[in-house]
Amino acid sequence: MREVTENIAGYGYGSAEVAASPVSLQDLELLKITVGFTPDDERYLRLAGEVLTGQTHAIVMQWRGQIIAHIPHLAQHSRALDGSPLPDYLAASNLRFEQWILDTCFRPHDRQWLDYQHEIALRHTRAKKNRTDGAPSTAYVPLRDAIGFVAVLNDTIRPYLASRGHPSVDVDGMHRAWCRSIQLQVALWARAYPSEEW
Amino acid sequence: MREVTENIAGYGYGSAEVAASPVSLQDLELLKITVGFTPDDERYLRLAGEVLTGQTHAIVMQWRGQIIAHIPHLAQHSRALDGSPLPDYLAASNLRFEQWILDTCFRPHDRQWLDYQHEIALRHTRAKKNRTDGAPSTAYVPLRDAIGFVAVLNDTIRPYLASRGHPSVDVDGMHRAWCRSIQLQVALWARAYPSEEW
User: What is the model's pTM?
Assistant: First the structure.
């Protein structure tokens, strides 16, 4: 594994406090076939991880500072209900966001990974949002916004993948693998959502 | 609008038998902001539509014949429960699939479009699957596979977008617009799903 820093508050990958995913490893394998995820993608994600290491801060600053911060219906989820900033919440969740980039690239798709996907999703629903950080923020991030924002994540990651001078065939390969992994993850996240939090 | 052929069985865009989407036009506008969909994307989708007109048969044959047909847990949704083929069902839904490509490119994002998104989604759930064609097939397509297969749709469309010799900046623009539209649509489809059909 690879860490963006030591001791990321609330980052519980592999720990006992993480939810158990109701999804079986067999269903995960089938879902990987649906998204077209192959061993080649696994190799390209490792390469992407090498390329993105050291860039995760800039990436999350772009996502959170340059994009989400200017979209009120998204920005509110990292703010207090009156719209005032919650710097500690934002800082901690930004670090976890950075770590999620590396986990996407480096973590094997095993039971721990599946459980942490479920944990990530629950932390966007009423079940667990705000709890990790004790933050007085919105009750949940609607599923539609979680699914929709994937288009932004996929689009904006590409220049970072290309920034280390790899041949375009490898940049394409890294990007394809990234898009497949994110689509796989968001499909899993949908499992944690009750219908009324669409 | 643009049609792949006259009289597509079960294609009810804009007709009275189509479901009414519970989503408001205001929520649609917010969701378009989430996926980053802009007026530029609208223009690029029109260009994509011009490029893809005449290629929709080849595209759907690739999706259905070369990809889905070889993935049993996806292929079953166009087959009878004993696995035998349903040629009429497949043929009709293939034509609607072709038309969906053109609708993605040419239809404005208005109330009719929103309603038809909901209708498309319902036709993948227990509520309406098989009904249009009277087909004795699976009860529903799990939401996870609908979300996951987007990665395949997005990846495989690109060579078709590039096949008419447009400069790569325009192919990139068409592809970006396509990916945003599909992510928008699948986010809307999730609204029609009850949790147990994940």
Answer: 0.97
Q: Count CB atoms within 10 A of the CB of residue A17.
A: 8
Whether ipTM exceeds 0.90: yes
| SS3 letters across B37-102 | CCHHHHHHHHHHHHHHCCCHHHHHHHHHHHHHHHCHHHHHHHEECCCCECHHHHHHHHHHHHHHHH
The amino acid present at B23, given as its one-letter code, is: V
Given CATH 1.50.10.20, say whether it is the number of domain A25-197: no
pLDDT digits 0-9 by tens, B118-152: 999 999 999 999 999 999 999 999 999 999 999 99
Across the interface, which of B27, B151, B195 has its CB nearest the CB of A179?
B151
pLDDT class of A1 with cuts at 50, 70, 90: confident
What ranges do the domains of chain A cover? 25-197
Closest partner residue to B34 (CB to CB) among A148, A180, A193 is: A148
Whether residues B33 and A184 touch (CB distance < 8 A) is answered with no
